[in-house]
Amino acid sequence: MKILPPPSNQQIARMQEIRRQLHRHPELAFAEFATGRLIAEQLGNLGIQCREQVGRTGIVANLGHMEPGTPCVALRADMDALPITEETGLPFASETPGVMHACGHDGHVAMLLGAAALLKGIELPGRVALIFQPAEEGDGGAQGMIADGALDGVEAIFAGHIDRNYELGEIVVQPGLISAFTDEFTIEIYGPGGHAAKPHETADSILAAGQLITSIQGIVAREVHPCFPAVITIGTIHGGSAANVIASQVTLTGTIRTTSSETRALCIASLQRMTLALEQLHRVTTSFRFVEGYPPVVNDPAATRIAAEVAAGIVGQAKLKGQPLPSLGGEDFSFFLQKVPGCLVRFGAKHTELHDGPAHSPRFDFDEEVLPIGARFLAQTALSALERMGELPPPSQESA
């Protein structure tokens, strides 16, 4: 197996420059226009042609042999930011009001461009597809890219995510299920409304909502099997217009995070049952709307073995970490893995001198020394997977 060298000092400096430029100019889901132009420009500088507007604002580029039937491995980086006002005080902090790279996607793009630079100069035993994906943060950009042919000819796919829960230099590789179903729901509660001084003349939607919020906590505590993790969170509540008015409507929105289909179905059914019960308890009417989210990320065992061996070769066996418990976070990389085998890993990027904000925090930042680690891992994994394609299961029939 050919072993790639680590990125040069010049390549590391360029990755840092790209990350900081993206961080300074973040863009939300499906609005990654300047981000896409920067990516296309950087690929052009490497002599790599790309296809733009894949899945609306995504980019796909290819390295190596393009003949039909050539073995192909894809590498993916997400590139959208979040609707968060940055509070890091960094010299390259966001200049776009209310928008921030608070999840490391700026670093992911820089890593994949760094991987492209490492792979460009060698003879590949196949094709490497570089997928720069929009709209990971809740909008499911992976699905649009798949529909637009991003996985055409691809037989395996790999990606990584920066994670400040792990030390710099650690790479987390785990086979099987590593993330959750991420579904959402909306509950509407309606009553006649009326004067606050005459509650007997009406039905109180806010009282009903309050009891429902409390009751929902009993689903996970008393209905879900304790060996299967689950979370039901009410994220917003809107109702009422004045202190002396009994509200005629309350709207609740929330999320359900589960790691098994059975637990997921139980939580949905229980939410529906409890919502409907309010009609008898509080003389209100209700509606329940369920919105299907991302499926869980399930790493293929064979692809994970390749990723683990590459990671150990780069950072050492002692810094190769497992993830014994799945995260209840979500990742739309799961849609790619429903089509082709692959593996999502995590790159440790903790730094004691940085802000202590977690992902999706206005104070989020990561140690930029993770950039060359991620770039080298992605490039080496693509090369190794091409050389060991026979160990991987075939893509699903649906995507063939």
Plain-language structure description:
This protein has helices at residues 9-24, 33-45, 105-120, 141-147, 205-222, 261-282, 301-315, 333-337, 370-387; strands at 50-54, 58-64, 72-78, 127-133, 156-167, 171-172, 176-177, 181-190, 194-195, 230-239, 245-246, 249-258, 285-294, 298-299, 320-321, 342-350. The protein has 400 residues and is α/β, with parallel strands linked by helices. Strands 1-2-4-3-5-16-6-15 form an eight-stranded mixed β-sheet, with helices on both faces. A hairpin with a 3-residue loop joins strand 1 and strand 2. Helix 1 (9-24) runs antiparallel to helix 3, helix 5 (205-222) runs antiparallel to helix 6 and helix 7 (301-315) packs across helix 9. The two termini are 28 Å apart. The mean pLDDT is 96.
The biggest beta sheet is recorded as: 8 strands, mixed
Low-confidence stretches: none
Instruction: Give the helices and strands as they follow along the chain.
Output: HHEEEHEHEEEEEHEEEHEEHEHEH
Mean pLDDT, as a whole number? Answer: 96
Strand content: 15-25%
Strand order of the largest sheet: 1-2-4-3-5-16-6-15
The CATH superfamily of the largest domain appears as: Zn peptidases
**Broad shape:** elongated
Number of strands: 16
Work out the count of structural domains.
2
> What helical percentage do the residues reach?
25-40%
Please write the CATH class name of the largest domain: Alpha Beta
The first-to-last residue Cα distance is 28 Å
Please state the oligomeric state of the protein chains shown: single chain
